[in-house]
Amino acid sequence: MNLKSLLKICLFALLIVACKNDEKDVKEEPTETVETAQADFDYNVEEFADIKILRYQIPGWENLSLKEQKLVYYLTQAGLAGRDIMWDQNYRHNLKIRRALENVYKQFSGDKTTDDWKNFETYLKRIWFSNGIHHHYSNAKIKPKFSKDYLNELLTATNTTLEGEAFDVLFNDKDAKKVNQAKGVDNVLESAVNFYGPDVTNADVANFYKKKTSPNPEKPLSFGLNSKLVKENGVLKERVYKSGGLYGEAIDEIVKWLEKAKGVAENKAQGDALGLLIDYYKTGDLQTWDDYNVAWTAATEGNIDYINSFIEVYNDPLGYRGSYETIVQINDFDMSEKMAVLSENAQWFEDNSPLMDDHKKDSVVGVTYKVVNVAGEAGDASPSTPIGVNLPNANWIRAAVGSKSVSLGNIINAYNNAGGTGRLKEFAHDEEEIQLEEEYGQLADKLHTALHEVIGHASGQLNPGVGETKETLKNYASTLEEGRADLVGLYYLYNPKLQELGLVDDWKKVGKAAYDGYIRNGLMTQLIRLDVGDDVEEAHMRNRQWVSAWAYEKGKEDNVIEKVTKDGKTYFNINDYEKLHEIFGQLLRETQRIKSEGDFKAVEDLVEGYGVKVDQAIHKEVKARNEQFPSPPYSGFVNPVLVPEMDDAGEITAIKVTQPNAFAQQMLNYSSNYSHLPEVN
After folding, report:
1. pTM of the full predicted structure?
2. pLDDT (tens digit, 9 = 90+) per residue, 200-234?
3. Which residue blocks in 40-93 are alpha helix, DSSP H?
4. Whether the Cβ atoms of residue 523 and residue 552 lie closer than 8 Å to each other
């Protein structure tokens, strides 16, 4: 059979395949996809448990050249090639569990109408969504609603093996939290995340990295970012993620696709950055990682960009180790041009912030801001995705070179087009609050994301001699940084400068909508996501609570935010937006001081005092009031399927964008085509 005939079969079945001769090692696995017209696009895929699965479009795809489309395709393939890394990072038995349950799902031919089977199917979908057996947001282990005996029946019926600790952990109380941020416990020992060996402690980590020194103290390396810390014969040792090292099988696949991407780079700067990323994956050298980030940050020309590697440290209880993540992005030129005004005025925002003068940057450099359309995601960014990203994370690179901030425009658009207003009307205090949200809420959210990423993360500086925040603020570093960036956004959302820059028509109404939404969420509606009795664990959720609760308490004397009971229901109503703006400024000043000085006692008091414990009466009430809304509190996405067309020589001649019909189909396809790791690392 020649390649042309094979191509016709591929397209007829709409496979995710790479039919080109030098891509023959990619497996061919059918997945049902459809080409969806933009006018009648259906954003909703399905719902289960507390999850809603959505689709997103790729606006402007048809305007890209074939070379640019190839670049996007190769980058998405590189991202998917490392997908299993995230699963293994999240928990040591995740891959073994997933592969066993998937085999049951595919092979079981018994009764699929029973409650037990439906519960099994839902459980597997929840695991797919969370990249493992722990909830993607709460970090708590997901509990199956079927028995051990039923699972054993399924395993026997499908000739599937899952035994020992990997079987038992599904039903017992061990490894209950992926990331345990509780005060007063050994966070490393009590976290199930697979960044550390089973007997490594908080003290071990602190002592190990205390001995590490960077060649240039002014440019500290990101020690621990790309390794697992284990004990071998009682001696601490890093197992580095690299070719020939930990995750080497998957990393070699990532490198293969990145090399193809480098071959179709849009310009020299982009190609050089990709080359450094490839070198980093091959060597695991952290100096090369910094060199790459400097080159990547400076490579701002072109239509295509990407995030790829071990990046965010939220899943490490001590904030050292990066989770695998990729996002492939296409520039939205129209929206980027409109919003670039923020980065162009970054120095004005820094100069006019309420920070202490010593904590302000004299020169905010290289902040680029773009609205982008996502073309593919994997790892920590999928299925649950961020809506904005600011990188790199190294403070010295931000200060010396700058950073890139992006808002994921098509993701935000999908969220906005797939939701309803029922919860708003239930939890908003009055009609004015509802009207402000309906008229200005989406704009306020977009601007808050932009200000958070562009101005927030780029603002402020550490005092001379103060170490990196992961060292000084430890397990509170992530939530402090996210809250600080949120506060920058909140402070400037209620400011006439936004109207002066042409970003809004009525800055007060936009600011009021933003403040209403933030307080309503921080003090009430985000509690929908927690089980009654739980503490707040996730870094972003913690920061929204401690910002809101601190503001509420500090404004009590002047009744800035009023707790109202109406018809037996609780509401938080903002009475004085001007004073709330001042309070946000005071808290921003304090959070920057904490970061700049490395004040661990102050951040501990702030987060533990305001961000962890939940008012149980309000929590029960919120959960009860939310029962009327069938829509789940969490959303995530299937990715569009990029289907290459080939000529007789095996060269790509076109790439079509199609959409998966179902979540399970895409997950099974990914497992079939992109499993490059053994079950145990």
Report:
1. 0.83
2. 999 999 999 999 999 999 999 999 999 999 999 99
3. 66-81, 83-90
4. yes
